[in-house]
Amino acid sequence: MTTHRLRNFLSGALLAVAAGAPVLGQSPLQSSGAARATFTDRGLEDLVSEALAKNPDIAASAATAEAAGFRIAPARTLPDPFLALNYQNDGWAFSLGVQDMTFLGLVFAQPLPWPGKLRLAGEEAAFRAEEVKAGTVGRTRLAVEARVRRAYYEYLLARSLLDLIEDRSRAWREISTITRERYAVGLGVQQDVLRAQVEVLRLDEARADQTAQVANRRTELNRVVGRPQDAPLDTDQHLEYRPDVPALDALLIAVRDRSPELAAASHGIEADRSRVELAKKDLLPDFVASGGPMYRGGLDPMWQVGLGITLPIYAGSRQKPRLEAAKAELHSDESLYSSAALELEFRTRERFRNLDAALRVARLYREGVLPTDELSLESAVASYRTGKVPFVTVLEALTTLYADRATYLGRLGDAEKWRVAIDEAELQPSASMTAVGPAVATSKGSIMGSTSAAVGMSSSPSMR
After folding, report:
1. N or C of the chain: less Cβ packing under 10 Å?
2. Which residue, among 123, 52, 142, has the nearest Cα to 421 in the 3D structure?
3. 170 pLDDT more than 90
4. What is the CATH number of the domain that holds 392?
5. Is the backbone peptide bond immediately before 438 cis, with ω within 30 degrees of 0?
6. 395 in a domain, yes or no?
7. Farthest CA pair distance, the chain
């Protein structure tokens, strides 16, 4: 095999695996509504929609929000009336129908809160229901969507690493042919031929491990979508270098608008304000309207109506402390809202910087490291063919190239997951991601002893 053929082979493999075909970059950034860091990828959006429709956590949170909604009508409704049956007797002996003041009475009484209390109680319950809906349901939906997207990119990464192993195996077979050609004409040593054959065989181990990783990532994706875990995934997508990112200012506004925690806190503040106004009205008396007929036996019947009021004479130890407590809760929730907004901005800026770093490193590998590695391998192969360098030089160059390609793929996967983390708008810190591909040793002995591990068999851990 000529050096030119090897260079063409490696160039084609680099473009096929690192760039991928067809590429995700053909899809634009999601542009509906507020700015989003993630891309609209064909197939992925269907998986997200399917997960949102099937996920039991979303169903549970929706039921919780529904339960909160049922509390609105009771809060707006008058207290239950009460009905009393009274008997009044004039004298010691039973005198119904004989004495004027002896009667059997039926009394109906209805408590009537001070005007505005029921309205405020209903408003508070409505805001509490919106708080649950925005916070619980909104966070669950964003979390499920993010889990699907992360699992999807982890699957693509695992599959790309498997393709990378296949490419490396083909490259080793090509180099093994060179060692045999040199050995056949007396220019090489048998140790080089055996070493190349061992590396080809070792890649079978790597292929088996990575095949298991692909299956595991497919199972995880099916699980979070809600499909049978052994269901096939029909996608021809690959990881792609996609440098487009919305402006940070636009993302900060978007995640603030999207945040379930901020939306819930906002509704909670409105509920607290209604509670403060309701606590103020508790300082005013409530009413009780009553009335009913009185049966007097053979005498003419009587009837009565009445209107009573409550006397808030213990306001100093009951109503006023409740008012102060409501004001304190309002102040607390307003402060928590401000704290959450600052935390969300910090997390978004942090994720944006991590995304920018991942893209910068990916570009460095794409435009600098990988082409240099390719040229280094080409030079090593050419020099080995002429006997200018030992076989270990070729071994090191090939190991470095594929380790760097694995790292490049890992950075592409990291970038996609940082995009997902930005759009998830989570207040909790995102777990750091580890680039794919172990470090490449520089010493001759380390290279000869661990080249089979340098392709990076495991995908980067998910960002939880």
Report:
1. C
2. 142
3. no
4. 1.20.1600.10
5. no
6. yes
7. 140
CB–CB of 157/413 below 8 Å?
yes
The single residue listed with the structure tokens 């304190």 is 328
Q: Specify if 461 maps to a domain.
A: no
CA-CA-CA-CA torsion sign (124, 129, 134, 140): positive
- Amino acid present at 371: P
Name the DSSP letter for residue 158: H
Rounded to the nearest 5°, which phi and psi values hold at 181? -65, -45
Q: Which of 431, 409, 406, 434 is nearest to 420 (CA)?
A: 431
79 cis-preceded (ω within 30 degrees of 0): no
What residues make up the domain containing 270?
3-73+135-283+332-453
Compute the distance between CA of residue 201 and CA of residue 7 in angstroms, rounded to an integer.
Answer: 23
Place of tokens 């065989």: 201
Strand partners, 305: 291
Contacts of 59 (CB under 8 A, 6+ apart): none
Under 8 Å between Cβ of 81 and 268: no
Residues near 416 by Cβ (< 8 Å), separated by ≥ 6?
38, 149, 153, 239
Instruction: Report the amino acid identity of residue 183.
Output: Y
Q: What is the pLDDT of residues 250-292, one digit of tens each?
A: 999 999 999 999 999 999 999 999 999 999 999 999 999 999 9
Query: Which candidate, 395, 396, 407, 401, places its Cα nearest to that of 373?
Result: 401
Q: What is the pTM of this model?
A: 0.80
Q: Check if the beta carbon of residue 100 is closer than 8 Å to that of residue 107.
A: no
Give the count of domains, the chain. Answer: 1
Write out the DSSP string of 331-384. HHHHHHHHHHHHHHHHHHHHHHHHHHHHHHHHHHIIIIIHHHHHHHHHHHHHHH
Q: Is 292 inside any structural domain?
A: no
pLDDT tens column, 110-130: 999 999 999 999 999 999 999
**Can you read off the two tokens belonging to residue 115?**
């005007």
Report the alpha-carbon distance of residue 142 to residue 57 in Å, rounded: 11
- 178 located within any domain: yes
Question: CB atoms < 10 A from the CB of 71, how many?
Answer: 15
DSSP annotation of 96: T
Phi, psi of 84 (to 5 degrees): -125, 145
> Could you give the CA distance from residue 457 to residue 319 in angstroms, rounded to a whole number?
67
